[in-house]
């Protein structure tokens, strides 16, 4: 494979940005996906800045706007990546939202928004990607889950359900497509500094850091390093696994 292609959903900022940047550094041609249904101008500008930095560092890629919570948006995103970059070896299902709320206050609409964005998106993107990867008999699907998908968390019943759902999805895809050269793995970050966690009160953040054996919160680059390894040829025999990146928080 010369210059394989990687698509990372929700990669205009945060963990997705760190992943797409690392993959570009590792020689992938990348598709930087930004969310185009809300704050489109802002998100496109962020995605363009991510791509500009990749190009400045000698990499190659494109930016693509899409709403991966819809079947049409996600499918078009995968198909456009293949059309514009000519291939697809790695799909990272990273796009996600959190809407922390007590179970009794979560509306049906909020439940569906979260499940569609965090879980259905991985189904839509993977389905379109696997159709292409099967023909090449090669592919890597990496799903960004969470430690709360394994342990649960008060105020995150919908979020935890979506992240646990991603694990079952990962295991099944790994069994179904392993024989065809496609691996599927999940990464479960702990508490990572990003827009998703920036609104937590500072005292909550420092209290959490105290409980993490390595003594600090995670950085998006900590997650990206593992994803890059799973996307590399060296990880060919790792399939259907869920690997935590949490500084030891959950031990
Ligand atoms: N930050 C953490 O502590 C943490 C911990 C565990 C798991 N995660 C997971 O990591 C992933 C990245 O989170 P982050 O911390 O970088 O958060 P973030 O909010 O900074 O990034 C999320 C990205 O997803 C995009 N997105 C949201 N809805 C979308 C849609 N419908 N279509 C396309 N893109 C969409 C956003 O625009 C954004 O770029 C998420 O799946 C999140 O659940 C984060």
CATH superfamily: NAD(P)-binding Rossmann-like Domain
Largest sheet: 7 strands, parallel
CATH hierarchy class name = Alpha Beta
Task: Look at the helices and sheets and give the structural class.
Answer: alpha/beta
- Please trace the helix and strand order, writing H or E for each element: EHEHEHEHEHHEHHE
Distance between the termini: 38 Å
What bound compounds does this protein have?
Answer: nicotinamide-adenine-dinucleotide
Computed over alpha carbons, the radius of gyration is 17 Å
User: What is the number of beta strands?
Assistant: 7
Percent of sequence in beta strands: 5-15%
Unreliable parts: none
The strands making up the biggest β-sheet line up spatially as: 3-2-1-4-5-6-7
Quote the average pLDDT.
97
Helix coverage percent = 40-55%
């Amino acid at each position: 494979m010369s210059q394989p292609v990687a698509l990372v959903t929700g990669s205009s900022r945060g963990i997705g940005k760190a992943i797409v940047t690392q993959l570009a550094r590792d020689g992938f041609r990348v598709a930087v996906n930004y969310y185009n249904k809300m704050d489109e101008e802002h998100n496109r500008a962020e995605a363009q800045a991510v791509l500009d930095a990749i190009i400045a560092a000698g990499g190659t890629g494109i930016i693509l706007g899409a709403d991966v919570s819809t079947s049409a948006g996600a499918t078009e995103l995968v198909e456009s990546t293949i059309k514009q970059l000519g291939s697809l070896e790695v799909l990272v299902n990273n796009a996600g939202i959190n809407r922390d709320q007590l179970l009794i206050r979560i509306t049906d609409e909020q439940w569906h928004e979260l499940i569609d964005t965090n879980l259905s998106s991985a189904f839509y993107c993977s389905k379109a990607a696997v159709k292409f990867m099967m023909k090449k008999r090669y592919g890597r699907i990496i799903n960004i889950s969470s430690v709360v998908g394994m342990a649960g968390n008060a105020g995150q019943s919908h979020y935890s359900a979506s992240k646990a759902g991603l694990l079952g999805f990962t295991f099944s895809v790994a069994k179904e497509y392993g024989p065809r050269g496609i691996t599927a793995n999940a990464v479960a970050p702990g508490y990572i500094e990003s827009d998703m966690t920036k609104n937590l009160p500072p005292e909550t953040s420092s209290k959490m850091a105290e409980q993490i054996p390595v003594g600090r919160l995670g950085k998006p680059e900590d997650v990206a390093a593992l994803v890059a390894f799973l996307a590399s040829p060296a990880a060919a025999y790792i399939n259907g696994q869920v690997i935590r990146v949490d500084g030891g928080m959950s031990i």
